[in-house]
UniProtKB/TrEMBL annotation:
GO terms for cellular component: endomembrane system; membrane. The gene is LOC109473063. It comes from the Eukaryota. Belongs to the AIG1 family. It is found in: Endomembrane system. It is a multi-pass membrane protein. This is Androgen-induced gene 1 protein-like isoform X4. It catalyses: 12-hexadecanoyloxy-octadecanoate + H2O = 12-hydroxyoctadecanoate + hexadecanoate + H(+); 12-(9Z-octadecenoyloxy)-octadecanoate + H2O = 12-hydroxyoctadecanoate + (9Z)-octadecenoate + H(+); 13-octadecanoyloxy-octadecanoate + H2O = 13-hydroxy-octadecanoate + octadecanoate + H(+); 9-(9Z-octadecenoyloxy)-octadecanoate + H2O = 9-hydroxy-octadecanoate + (9Z)-octadecenoate + H(+). Pfam families: Far-17a_AIG1.
Length: 231
C-alpha cells in the first residue's frame, strides 16, 4: 500500500483523463434543451465545481510527486493542503454529486438529466461526471495516507462549501431567472428548505464515511489527547 510509483501513475492518469474530458466537453458537447437553461452556463452546476476540484487536486498531486520524486525536496505544505481538501471538501462533495444525481435520476431523470441530453453528452462523460468521482477518491485514500484534521475543522470546511454553493444557487435564481436544476423549479419553498437540510445532513454523514474508510485503510487517527498521553 502507498507505492510511490503506483500513486504517481494514478495521479497522472486521472489528471490526463480530467483534462481530456474538459477539452472534449468544451469542443464537442453543445447541449441545447429548454428543460435545463443552465446548461449554457456550466459553472452553475455543482458537478462542474466538483470536476474542477478533482482536476486541481490531482494536478497538485502530480506536482507534489514531481517535487519529491524528481527534485528530491519535501512538499509538506502542499501535502497538508491536499489532505484537508480531499477529506473535508472533495470526498463529501463527490459523494453528494453521485448519490443525489443517481438518486433523482432513478426517480425521474427528466428532473436532473433529460433524455434529450443523451444525444449530445456521451455516456462516458456522464460517468466521469457522476460515477467514477467517488471510486477514484477511495483509491487515492487507499494508496496515499491522507491525514484527517480534527472533526470540527473538517466538518467546518464541508459545511462552508455547502453554504457557498447554496448562496450561488439563490443568486443564479434571482439574477439569472432560472433554477440550476429542474427539480428545484417544482419545489415549494418548504420543500426546498427540507432538501437543503437533507443535503447538508448527508454531506456530514459522507464526511464521517470518508473518515471511516481512512481508518479502515490506515488505522484510527490518534487524537491530540492520546498523543499527549503517549508522550
Amino acid at each position: 500500500m502507498g507505492s510511490k510509483a503506483a500513486s504517481f501513475t494514478s495521479h497522472v492518469f486521472l489528471l490526463v483523463l480530467y483534462l481530456f474530458e474538459e477539452y472534449y466537453n468544451m469542443k464537442y458537447v453543445r447541449p441545447v434543451t429548454s428543460k435545463m437553461p443552465g446548461l449554457q452556463y456550466r459553472a452553475v452546476f455543482f458537478t462542474t465545481w466538483n470536476l474542477m476540484a478533482h482536476t486541481v487536486f490531482f494536478s497538485s498531486c502530480v506536482l507534489a510527486d514531481f517535487i519529491e520524486g524528481v527534485l528530491g525536496k519535501k512538499a509538506a505544505g502542499l501535502r497538508k493542503v491536499q489532505d484537508y481538501v480531499l477529506v473535508s471538501i472533495l470526498f463529501p462533495m463527490s459523494m453528494i454529486v453521485m448519490v443525489v444525481f443517481w438518486g433523482i435520476y432513478a426517480v425521474d431523470r427528466e428532473l436532473i438529466f433529460p433524455a434529450s441530453l443523451d444525444h449530445v453528452i456521451p455516456p462516458w462523460i456522464n460517468h466521469v461526471w457522476h460515477t467514477t468521482i467517488v471510486p477514484v477518491l477511495l483509491l487515492e485514500m487507499y494508496m496515499v495516507h491522507h491525514k484527517y484534521p480534527s472533526r470540527r475543522a473538517g466538518l467546518t470546511g464541508a459545511i462552508t462549501l455547502g453554504l457557498v454553493y447554496l448562496t450561488w444557487i439563490l443568486i443564479v435564481a434571482k439574477v439569472g431567472g432560472f433554477w440550476v436544476y429542474p427539480f428545484m423549479a417544482v419545489m415549494t419553498g418548504f420543500q426546498f428548505v427540507l432538501f437543503c437540510c437533507f443535503t447538508a445532513a448527508i454531506g456530514c454523514v459522507f464526511y464521517l464515511m470518508g473518515e471511516l474508510c481512512n481508518n479502515v485503510f490506515w488505522g484510527p487517527r490518534e487524537t491530540p489527547r492520546k498523543q499527549k498521553k503517549r508522550a
